[in-house]
Design brief:
globular, Peptide Deformylase, alpha+beta, 32% helix, five-stranded antiparallel beta sheet, binds zinc ion
Length: 178
């Protein structure tokens, strides 16, 4: 398992709802947490590691020792959205890219946990932002799709650089014998 980077096509796929919570899924979730901590992230969606499940994980502290801050959202749906907030946002699939993104201020989300229990949460600030970011992932939507005007201009420039960088790397590989 590894974190996929833009423009990997899996990042644009719409995830399918989870129908069974078994040991295999629990193991995958554990591995996702390890990867997320290794990259110092606070959230990670299943399709970011190539799994087609409608599932994401969250630990707003990014601290592997804070186990009680670990949350798993299975088949999440955002029920209510209120107000707005704007802040710099990053994504583990876009290493080192940060841009201002406008989000809803407060949201109410319902989901299932790893024990199959349904829960409902109303959150604001960072928690709300992270849940909107991760739920977007499950629909194949990326934060670069939601940049505010200033962010959008910078994002385009950065993506151009990213593409130039990628094709340069490809050119190097092509030049390699064998
Ligand atoms: Zn992301």
């Amino acid at each position: 398992m590894q974190i996929l980077h833009y423009p990997h096509p899996a990042l644009r796929r719409k995830s399918t709802p989870v129908t069974r919570i078994d040991q295999e899924l629990r193991d995958a979730v554990r591995e996702m947490f390890e990867l997320m901590y290794a990259s110092e992230g606070i959230g990670l969606a299943a399709n970011q590691v190539g799994l087609p499940f409608r599932l994401f994980i969250l630990n707003l502290t990014a601290d592997p020792n804070e186990k009680d801050q670990e949350h798993v959202f299975i088949n999440p749906e955002i029920l209510k959205r209120k107000g707005t907030q704007e802040a710099e946002e990053g994504c583990l699939s876009f290493p080192k890219l940060y841009h201002p993104v406008k989000r809803f201020g407060q949201i109410t989300v319902e989901a299932f946990d790893l024990d199959g229990n349904g829960f409902e949460l109303t959150v604001d600030d960072l928690g709300s932002r992270a849940i909107q970011h991760e739920t977007d992932h499950l629909d194949g939507v990326l934060f670069i799709d939601r940049l505010t005007d200033v962010g959008q201009r910078r994002g385009r420039a950065n993506r151009r650089r990213l593409r130039v960088g990628l094709s340069a790397a490809a050119a190097v590989r092509r030049d390699c014998p064998g």
